[in-house]
Amino acid sequence: MNRVEEWVLENRDKIEKGVEIMGQGCEVLASTVGQFHPILEAVFVASAEILSNPDGKEARYLTEQFEKVNQKLEGIQDEIGKIALELQRSSMNKQNFDREAQIISQYEKFQDFINAKPKFKEKKKEKFISHFENTDRDLNLDALYNAVTGENISGDPMLETVLNTEQRGRRAVEEFCARVKKLFVMGIIAVMGHASLKDGVIGEDMVKKWQDRMEDVENRMKAAVDDCTQNFAVQAKMDVERELLDKPGSVDPEFTKSLLVILTRKYDWVSWSIRVFNHSGIFFWNWLAGKKYHGSGGGGNFFDLLTQNNIRVVVSFSADPKPINKNHLQDQIEKQKLKGNMVSVAQALCGSQPNCLVHARKTGRANFSPYGKTTFCKDIKLTQPAQLGLRTLRRVHAEQATYQDTNITPTL
Known about the structure:
Layout: H1 3-22, H2 26-31, H3 37-52, H4 57-73, H5 76-89, H6 94-97, H7 99-115, H8 121-134, H9 139-149, H10 158-165, H11 170-199, H12 204-230, H13 232-246, H14 253-266, E1 271-278, H15 289-297, E2 302-306, E3 311-318, E4 322-323, H16 326-336, H17 342-352, E5 357-358, E6 368-372, E7 380-381, E8 395-397, E9 403-404, E10 407-411
Protein name: Rapunzel 5
Organism: Alosa alosa
InterPro entries: SE-CTX-like
């Protein structure tokens, strides 16, 4: 068994795993680290083998894997404009706007060599080498790496710029990271292919250099996505505050739903519930137990805002909703309804549901507009006769009422 056969045998599973990940969605691409190392190393092995023994079993296998990688990378050319926009936002100069196009052209010339028939291999090799050297060699990839790390004219790491311009929009950040990662893979393949074909030897130092750089980029991408997921509550509050500056709001379902749409579109992995109240109403803000009891009985899974025209907006959320016992919840409400005291009701429910935001208030339908994410369960309806002057206990409004770490909003 020669060296190439041995290397392919040892790395076959890793190569195919890397190719598989290349075809995954943006969420996976943006969060994986180190999975493409075997693909990048394979470029060195494959380039020389394909040139010297194009009909060999290993050459055919590696060519097949490169073709699969190429299929996964299709479409990246159409997305270069989006990457250039971020480079422009980073105040990079005009020269760097062209780097991405040159990376793609270098990669395409290398693919021409890979896919050429045996009798044309040598000619395609020379064309690739000439094109690579006439399009700034590896300076294009260096420029892209420096843009990501901030070692550029502006001094601002590109991913930080993306986080700011996208306002911690997780999906937008993931999509951008996936595009840049694919571009890096294309660039590294071209750089390594040139070194292998030009020098005729495997440059282990170069392999390590670009594997390390790729891992550095991947770690930065993962950190950017983690920033979006870990700080979504802070950003969501800022988003709602900004929306309320333009829309003072009113107590009606359409206004409440419009806020919910904004949150669910941007933070689609989070469960949301929104309640809107007239701050000046006589029954408004009878009690918000979570505000007082979160410290001892639950997490800070809500925020509330007051609009310019005295409308209170309460937003609660959970990134990891779990079922709760609805029968137990109903029993707790039944025990408290005779008291007619919203403070007591809220305290009791908060005590029995320590990880929930509990909001209890007397019925004031004209001044109350709740809305929850449509994926939550429907309202729990409890009907009992009125007692001691209280309104009929008609419903426990809670699109999130069957989830811990979310909201329970009993309306008496």
